[in-house]
Amino acid sequence: MQLMPRDIQRLQKAMAQVRDESFFRSFRNLLRARLSFDTFLILIFPKDGAPEPLETWIKDPVLAHNYPRLYTAGAYRLDPFFQYRNQIGDGGLYLLSEIAPDRFFAGEYYLQYYKQTKIIGEVGLLVPLSDGSVGHLSFSRREGRGTFKRKEVNCLKQASPILLELLRQHCEHRMALRSTQGPDNKSRPLEDLIRAHVAESQKPQLTRREAQMAGLILQGHSNLSAALSLGISRETAKVHRRNIYRKLQISSQTELFVLLADLF
Q: Is 133 among the domain residues?
């Protein structure tokens, strides 16, 4: 990406304010000079537990009121960026379409959650932090604006080393300031929450592997994709899916989502 004089000025301002409360606005202005978006959020994905929003900017006031609450209440558990946080290496910039499971866009989570937010295109930066957590910058476009164009994405990827370093420094600084919170129910693995929820419904208990498979189904994985994730054969994944549906007396991913909707 060729930097113009104004770009350099915005970059210098963001760098100077990386440990300051005004950094978020400067960082947003730095990116908004090159592309448009409707949401802009910085979060921390801890090693255990729910994401911690640091700063949010959401253009639509109704979405601004509902989106963070909806996400941290449980929707994050099926978020492809949250699920991908342990696979980022030194970090990078990713499109939702690049990291989402193979059946994600046909899944009930996408149809329900993204229908509410009206988000049609999302870009995320993920960077590892010193305590094992991950810093996440998310910006997205909603219906009517169109998805991010390849030219815009290429421009962002060229600038990603600088953007990731700014994000890392800011998140490290914010982590040093935050108070430590005790563990809560949100820190439990998804498969444990699924098993507990099924037990409360007085249905036959799922095995841990079946609960893991149920979580992958909800995230939008096909049998083949889930098998690769769990290190099992496709046929074994099919057996797990059949057992889940039989025990829960359901016949589709939609019914599974409805049954476990309280978790998200």
A: yes
pLDDT digits (tens, 9 = 90+) for 72-129: 888 999 999 999 999 999 999 999 999 999 999 999 999 888 877 889 899 999 999 9
Q: Which residue, of 113, 145, 177, is where some domain finishes?
A: 177
- 96 touches 113 (CB < 8 A): no
Give the model confidence (pLDDT) of 27-74 as tens digits: 999 899 889 999 999 999 998 888 999 999 999 988 888 888 888 888
Q: Please, are residues 19 and 30 in contact by the beta-carbon 8 Å criterion?
A: no
Give the CATH number for residue 58.
Answer: 3.30.450.80
Q: 20: Cβ–Cβ under 8 A, 6 or more apart, which residues?
A: none
Q: What single-letter DSSP state applies at residue 19?
A: T
Q: Are strands 92-95 and 52-58 parallel, antiparallel or unpaired?
A: unpaired
Q: In the listed set 134, 153, 177, which residue is the last one of a domain according to the structure?
A: 177
Residue 177 makes CB contacts below 8 A (sequence gap 6+) with none
- What is the value of pTM for the model shown? 0.84
SS3 68: helix
